[in-house]
Amino acid sequence: MSNKEIIEAYYKYANAGEWDQWCDLFTDDMVMDEQLAGHIEGLATLRPMMGGMKVAYSKFQNVPKHILVDGDQGAVVSHISAANAAGIPIEADVMNYFRFRDGKISYMANFHDSKPFEPFLNQKL
Fold first, then answer.
1. Which of 94, 93, 120, 104 is closest to 37 using CA atoms?
2. Which stretch of DSSP H or E encloses residue 123?
3. Which of 21, 27, 84, 118 is the most buried (most CB within 10 A)?
C-alpha cells in the first residue's frame, strides 16, 4: 500500500471497529503519542489497549476532512463523532500526524481538545 492508502485504511478500519486490522497497519516497534492514552511504545502494548475500544465506545466514527502525504510523513484533519459506553455523545475536531516506514505506520500522534472526551474519560466500565 502507498502511504496515502495506509492512512485511508487507518480510518476505514477504525470506523468499522476492526481494531485488529487497524493495529496491523503499525510496525512492531511503533510509537504513538495519544492525547488521552499518553505515550505508547510497541505493537504488543497497543493491540490489547485497542481491544477495549468496543467496550468503552458505543459509537466511534473518525471522518477525515483533509489528508496530506509528503514522502514518509502524513497529516490528517478529521472529525470524531462518538459516544461513550452509556451513549453520551462526543464531538471533536482532531489532527493526526503520521510517519511511515517499510509500508507501515511507525509513529503517530494526535492532537485535540480533551474536554469533549470527558464522557469517555469519566465513565465507569
1. 120
2. none
3. 84
User: Cβ contacts of residue 52 below 8 Å, gap of 6+?
Assistant: none
Q: Which CATH number do you get for residue 100?
A: 3.10.450.50
Name the residue range of residue 7's domain: 3-121
Q: In whole angstroms, what is the distance from residue 16 CA to residue 89 CA?
A: 18
Distance CA 62, CA 82 (A): 8
Read off the pLDDT of residues 75-112 as tens digits, 9 standing for 90 and up.
Answer: 999 999 999 988 989 999 999 999 999 999 999 999 98
Nearest to 19 by CA among 72, 68, 60: 60
| C-alpha closest to that of 25 among 41, 12, 39, 38 | 12
- pTM, rounded to two decimals: 0.90
Query: How many angstroms separate the CA atoms of 30 and 48, rounded?
Result: 14
Q: Total structural domains in the chain?
A: 1
Phi, psi at 49, each rounded to 5°: -60, -45
